[in-house]
Amino acid sequence: MKKLRVQIALHYVVASVLTLLVIGMVLYQSISSIVQKEATTNTENAVEQSGMYIDLYIDRLKAVSRMLAENPQLVGYLSVKDRDPAVKEKILSTIDTTMATDSFMESIVIVSKDGQIISNETGLSMSMSGNMMKEAWYVSAIHSGNMPVLTSARMQGFSMDKDNWVISLSREIKNEQGRNIGVLLIDVQYKVIEDYLANLDLGHTGFSFILNAKGEVVYHADPSYFQNENKQQTLQKIAHNPAAYDAEKHTLTHTYSLQNADWLYVGVSSQDELAAIKDKLFFIFILVGFGFLVIATVSVVIFTGRITTPFRKLEMAMQEIEQGLVEVPIDDRGCYEAQSLSRHFNSMIMKIKKLMQEITDKEKDLRRSEISTLHSQINPHFLYNTLDTIVWMAEFNDSEKVIEITKALAQFFRLSLSGGSELTTVENELDHVRQYLFIQKERYGDRLTYTIDYDPSLLQVQMPKIILQPIVENALYHGIRGLDRQGLIEIRAEASEQKVIFSIQDNGDGFDVDALQQSIASKTTKLGGVGIKNVDERIKLYYGNEYGVTIKSSSSCGTLAQIIISKTME
């Protein structure tokens, strides 16, 4: 197990397996998420489109009822006791014309307050009296609020024959003084709802239904739901607690509240295809992963053999080094790799002291080179979210906002690059943060507010760039984003003797500072895309150990981060 060949092979295989697992899991989750999101969008669009069709039809019925109820001839006819039969014929003609425009319209009934009826329907069975205000169905029709109901108010019973079902819309008829003179009833066939929902694709076991404000079933393809209370309670539970996606049942639920009725339309889509796609993806990833593992195992056997063979030969030539730090004799008959390593080893002995001195001298320059790349690690999610915001506003033709955010984003990156310079001014650094917060403000709206205060005498002070933005980003994502109230970020730049103090205060919920310091020490925390520790290290590199980042936090006062730098740089 201690042999180099065995260790290389084990590490190679383990690393390959872990890499394949991570890549497979990421791809599986990503593709599954995309497919599920697409299925969710399609279901939501289908349900809302069907709901809007029904909404539009009800709105049309309301417009028809308003036109008939406010017809001057009808109002005048019902307002007098001595009624002209010729006027009644004209009203009936208007009713016939109206019904001709809609094949689903079953009947139009006009009942006066004194019990007279005008309708295209003959043989009406209705409870009538000289004062209709004594009839319960008449009063119910007046107080229905022009909301559609299943079966007419004038019907005495509810038959389970769907062919006899109607959707009834009632409207009170008033005279010029606003007093009741009658009621208008429009009955349309129940089939109109079924026709609008006939082409809705909700999968093999999917279904849709409509409930009114009382929780009563208005529509379901299965008539048994109109009588079975247990089934009705199941529908009410789905409507009141809609789970967007049920992983166990593979169903997706979406609701749509009709604007022109007290109805809630619910679509439950069976995601059978989504489950099949996920299973197929899982099988493919397992199969491909196994193939890659076989290839990796074969290749590592060949690869490690080619590496370790020259080392075994060189080992025999270098055994004398154990007696002291002396040059290794080079065997001209040895392999090229062994000869090359021997020459470099001999040269290394002679140059150790010189190299150590050079390493000491170059250590600081190396640190500068390493740190100089840290500030360029701008969080890609910020760019993606900003571009999504721009696209969203462009879709809504909000060109002014698109221009403002695009300019802010361009200014943000211009200040980030600074022409390739590592340094900037306090003025540019504050402007850099200002552009960042402006863009985030457009995303979060009223959930975010911020202030930037500074001492004007500090604006031209030189400083490392991208020092404030990572800390502000941390305050936004870890302090403000989860609040249920308006978030506030306050930024101040103040002078204290020969120091410049930047303060970033947020009104978030705060956190355990000790735990944060431990995670920073273990390099497990990344904040703002760069990290508090990296910002602190950059400041100490430029100014010394007495400068850097300090953090104070409590649950009642949010979090205060302070960045202290010198007015002058070395």
Structure, explained:
By secondary structure, the protein is an alpha+beta fold. The protein has helices at 4-69, 72-79, 85-100, 136-142, 191-197, 229-240, 272-317, 336-372, 380-395, 399-417, 426-444, 468-480, 513-521, 532-543; strands at residues 105-112, 117-119, 149-150, 166-174, 180-189, 207-212, 217-220, 245-246, 251-257, 263-270, 423-425, 448-454, 462-464, 487-496, 499-506, 548-554, 558-566. The strands form four sheets. The chain has a five-stranded antiparallel β-sheet with strand order 2-1-5-4-3. It has a five-stranded antiparallel β-sheet with strand order 7-6-10-9-8, with helices on both faces. A five-stranded mixed β-sheet has the order 12-14-15-17-16. A hairpin with a 5-residue loop joins strand 9 and strand 10 (263-270). Helix 1 (4-69) runs antiparallel to helix 7 (272-317) and helix 9 (380-395) packs antiparallel against helix 10 (399-417). Residues 373-377 and 526-530 have low confidence and may be disordered.
**Average pLDDT number:** 79
Separate helix tally: 14
User: Approximately what portion of the residues adopt beta-strand conformation?
Assistant: 15-25%
Q: How can the largest sheet be summarized?
A: 5 strands, antiparallel
> How would you classify the helix and strand content by structural class?
alpha+beta
- Helical fraction: 40-55%
Number of strands: 17
Characterize the overall form.
elongated
Radius of gyration: 39 Å
Stretches with pLDDT under 50, minimum 5 residues: 373-377, 526-530
How far the N terminus sits from the C terminus, by CA atoms, comes to 52 Å
